[in-house]
Specification:
Layout (H helix, E strand, L loop, with lengths): L1 H5 L2 E6 L1 H4 L8 H16 L3 E6 L2 H9 L8 H25 L4 E6 L1 H5 L1 H16 L3 E6 L13 H12 L3 E6 L20 E2 L4 H5 L13 H13 L3 E6 L5 H6 L6 E3 L4
Parallel strand pairs: 1-2, 1-5, 2-4, 3-4, 5-7, 6-8
Antiparallel strand pairs: 7-8
Length: 262
């Protein structure tokens, strides 16, 4: 666990259900805590990348939607509305702690195309040299089925591989990977460490999603496969209180750790 404290480059992914209320409005208290902790970790010498969901959710709140629309064009429009407010809020909060942020919006073709991949990689490296904190989201406004990652769990794993991160932390509304559905079985237990992702581990993944988010445990397993293959450890932890990040770097056993292939 001491390795996590030594991790130099860290990607933190936070989901819509953590960032917003059911109405889609921003959960200001949680975001303020998140920014404070990430700023402090950056002050300690770590290079931080934040992969943030929430653009569509915030756009829903601004436009008065109570449920995510099915039409792609509507979701793209809501993402355009929400992304502005989301980044404005992050900029204001990180500036308070003396940090400069940089917005990066990605589509899947950047990962699939060698030249675009290298360009994106170089951009990240230069941002680290400038001591900026990259904030990444999928470019929902232009994404189509051919261009989309589908969820930000997968996006965060690709970003971890792209940046050569030591550690990926996925903050969600769950405590970790359980050996069986905790909503159905009172004796369900968290699997603390996963050395290898096999059929038994995949069988433990549920399919539950929130109204504002995408994916579920299945997408996190997919993310773990991508991250660990790239040599990056991954942790799933509950992001309800972002101060949990301190506990992780202090060496406490939190959530589920997927061990990198090294």
């Amino acid at each position: 666990m001491d390795f996590f404290n030594k991790a130099k480059r860290v990607v933190v992914k936070v989901g819509t259900s953590t960032l917003t209320y059911e109405s889609g409005s921003l959960n200001i208290r949680t975001i303020e805590k998140l920014v404070k902790v990430l700023s402090d970790l950056k002050n300690s010498g770590k290079e931080i990348v934040l992969v943030t969901s929430g653009a569509v959710g915030v756009g829903m709140g601004k436009a008065g939607y109570s449920k995510k629309p099915d039409e792609l064009a509507k979701k793209q429009a809501l993402a355009a509305i929400g992304q502005c407010e989301l980044m404005n809020f992050y900029d204001e909060l990180f500036s308070h702690y003396g940090h400069t942020i940089a917005q990066i919006l990605l589509t899947k073709d950047v990962i699939d195309d060698k030249i675009r991949y290298e360009n994106a990689k170089n951009t990240f490296e230069n941002l680290f040299e400038l001591s900026a904190l990259p904030i990444v989201n999928e470019n929902d406004t232009i994404s189509t089925e051919q261009l989309e990652f589908g969820d930000n769990d997968t996006l965060s794993a690709y970003v971890s591989a792209l940046t050569g991160a030591d550690l990926l932390i996925i903050l969600s509304d769950i405590d970790g990977l359980y050996n069986k559905d905790p909503k159905k079985y009172f004796d369900a237990k968290i699997i603390g460490t996963v050395e290898k992702i096999d059929e038994n581990i995949e069988a433990c993944a549920g399919v539950a999603t929130s109204n504002r988010g995408t994916g579920g445990m299945i997408t996190k397993i997919t993310a773990a496969k991508i991250a660990t293959k790239a040599g990056c450890d991954m942790i799933i932890a509950n992001g309800k209180d972002p101060y949990i990040l301190y506990k992780i770097f202090d060496g406490e056993k939190i959530g589920t750790t997927f061990v990198a292939n090294k």
